Amino acid sequence: MVTVHPSLRGAFERPLLPRVEAILEREQFGEALRDLALRLVAMHDIAPRIVRYTANLQKWLLTQAILTLCFEHKIDGTRPGLTAAKLVDFFVASKIASRNTAVAHLAEMRSYKLLLDAEWSGDKRLRPLIVSETAEDLIRQWFDGHLKSLDRLDGGRRHHLSMAEPSLLFFAHPRATRRLFGEPGWCSPPESVASFVRTESGSNILHDLIARLPKGELPQGQITIGPLRISEITSRYIISNSHAQRVFARARDLAVVGWQRPGNRGDLWVSSQLVSDYRRWQAVKFAALEEAFDWAVARTI
């Protein structure tokens, strides 16, 4: 479980659970989630080496925390500029990652120009970091994709408002992230989901499986999603065969995925339990974004 750093805590008047339950009860949620999974996979296919920075839960938390702190500085210049040292200290204090993991994550984000050094004439160790246009564009795609899915649930106009007022991202994203950092339903997902999202590229693989679900009402038990070879996964997500085999072996041990024929041949199936767990886990994120967007609109429009 993540220990929430004081600087990332938010004051929330109402619990998130009622929103989560309401989202789960919406008839279109399964289809909206499937469409979102397709969008997330498409984002990976366009920029695979960049999207990998959110490809498991730890990296998601690391990257979203960076964006949160950067966006908060962007909308409030009185907040101190972000530095690599401050970010690493934050990650370690929050128990998101070890110092070495945090340093390596920051170094890779800088290497791929997702984080840039701001102009600075002082001590290089205190040089502020800023989010690059590439990183901001990707998180906006992610944000707007979720707004489209929320709109599908209730006929809302969130995406239209976001397009008309781009600054909503900078207000809503940090609030949603702060909420999710304190939500066990997000940070401590069900074991079936965790078997994927706590491994390298596991989130991508899980989204891929969900994107393959058939449309309409799903049966209980095993849900066939069609043929899928391990080699397709390794090629698409740039991971080794041995790693992909381990990911599916863990999931198979939990009886949440399997192939119809021996040797990982034939059609792949996923269990209705995995789908149910994934939907509840994602509903927590949807609820946090829904609440944060409502809050941002009330304060900016």
Label this structure with key terms.
single chain; mainly alpha; 3-stranded antiparallel beta sheet; two-stranded antiparallel sheet; 2 domains; about 300 residues; Arc Repressor Mutant, subunit A; 15 helices
Number of helices: 15
β-strand percent reads 5-15%
User: Helix amount, in percent?
Assistant: 55-70%
Class computed from helices, strands and strand pairing: mainly alpha
User: Largest sheet, described in full?
Assistant: 3 strands, antiparallel
Strand order of the largest sheet: 3-5-4
Q: List segments where confidence is low: pLDDT < 50 over at least 5 consecutive residues.
A: 1-10
How large is the radius of gyration? 19 Å
First CA to last CA: what distance? 36 Å
Order of helices and strands: HHHHHHEEHHHHHHEHHEEH
Describe the structure.
The chain is mainly α. The protein folds into two domains: 6-189 and 282-300, no CATH class; 191-275, Arc Repressor Mutant, subunit A (Orthogonal Bundle), CATH 1.10.10. Helix content is 62%, strand content 8%. It has helices at 17-25, 29-46, 48-51, 57-75, 84-93, 99-111, 133-154, 158-164, 168-181, 184-187, 191-197, 202-211, 230-237, 241-253, 272-300, and strands at 115-117, 129-131, 222-227, 257-261, 265-271. The strands form two sheets. The protein has a three-stranded antiparallel sheet. Strand 4 (257-261) and strand 5 (265-271) form a beta hairpin. The longest helix has 29 residues, at 272-300. The two termini are 36 Å apart.
Brief sketch in words of this structure:
This protein has 301 residues and is mainly alpha-helical.
